[in-house]
Design brief:
Blueprint lengths: L14 E5 L6 E2 L2 E2 L3 H15 L3 E5 L8 H6 L3 H11 L4 E3 L5 H9 L5 E4 L13 H9 L3 E4 L10 H7 L3 E4 L1 H15 L5 E5 L8 H10 L2 E4 L4 H7 L14 H14 L2 E3 L3 E5 L8 E5 L8 E5 L1 H11 L4 E5 L12 H11 L5 E5 L1 H9 L8 E3 L3 H7 L5 H4 L7
Parallel strand pairs: 1-4, 1-7, 4-6, 5-6, 7-8, 9-10, 9-15, 10-11, 15-16, 16-17
Antiparallel strand pairs: 2-3, 12-13, 12-14
Helix pairs in contact: 1-3, 5-6, 8-10, 9-10, 11-12
The protein binds adenosine-5'-diphosphate and magnesium ion (MG).
Amino acid sequence: MAKKIVSDLAVAGKRVLLRVDFNVPMKDGAISNDNRIVAALPTVRYLLENGARVIAFSHLGKVKTLEDRQTKSLKAVAARLAELLGQPVKFVAATRGAELEAAVDQLRDGEILLFENTRFEAGETKNADELGAYWASLGDLFVNDAFGTAHREHASNVGIAKQLETAAGFLMAREIQYIGGVVDAPQRPLVAILGGAKVSDKIGVIESLIDRADKILIGGGMMFTFLKAQGKSIGQSLLEADKVDLAKSLLAKAAERGAEIILPVDVVLTKQFDNAAASRLASIDDIAADEMGLDIGPATVALFKAALEGAKTVVWNGPMGVFEMPNFAVGTIGVCQAIAELKDCQTIIGGGDSAAAAIDLGFAEQFSHVSTGGGASLEYLEGKVLPGIAAIDDIGE
Ligand code: ADP
Ligand code: MG
């Protein structure tokens, strides 16, 4: 069922509640990276240009102590949003009460306010009915553009949605289109690429993709647990000894389902977890007891490139090596390059570090979609129903 998006709503003259993801990294009271604010601009601008009165809100970090109430204010975010929009953003330093209600009443068409961190309310993460109903009472319509919290059932996404006509913002709509597309009805062949640190973090994702993908390419730290399951010596490489049996059963399950799993054939080895340490390229059968693999080698990149040929959908989670160190980023770059060359193919990369790798290595534009949702991206790929998305109205509702 297709979900309503913001452009399906009649927003002119309406008070539109807008849940955004302004959970930006802060350092000493300043915003250290404003990507998330920039990412929300298309939805914010659309609403303002179409004459909505926008009441925006977000959480920022975890709020547990009294000190968190000082350091996790959205005030600086309001100022940065105003700069980016080129118009004033009224900041209301409250999450409820007379000041907020008066500010909402004073909003004119095409104006925006941002209220304080939703997690200053204890009821937010409990999805307290009273809180969702109160926030809903401030608006006429609800737009949810906060994909990063879609896997949580909170008052500011699910609670409000129960009360009002609700649509996805443009960012959320892209996540539904691309990741939802992989999960529900992928164009085939679907090739999944899995890497990153641990098998244990990704069991749900691997199982989901075994059911859905035609081929699964495995690199990153997790490859060693699979190689161990095949009886190979992996030296000091990252191993989850208690997951070797699981890896064996996943390999068997894939064979049963007709999903082809492709494992690396060569590896970049070193004796120290250090960019400057001496390294050597070796066959996967030639890892010494004192060596660890920190990247896939060129023969593996070529093997993966060949496996990607003709794919109609590619979904990637988890870097192929320790991409944070330039000497071990080569495999991840090689796979990015192979993806950039694909024609007529939907290419999706998701996961916190994976999205960071695509962006930092300069390949973000080469993907059809970079999903920045972190935990939400992974749970969505696992095939789980995300409460924040489920709460958005279907078209015709
Ligand atoms: P995501 O956040 O995209 O889900 P993960 O958190 O699972 O991805 O994995 C990212 C981390 O995996 C990176 O910090 C990277 O350095 C690490 N990694 C990748 N390959 C290896 C390897 N061979 N050995 C150790 N760590 C690795
Ligand atoms: Mg990570």
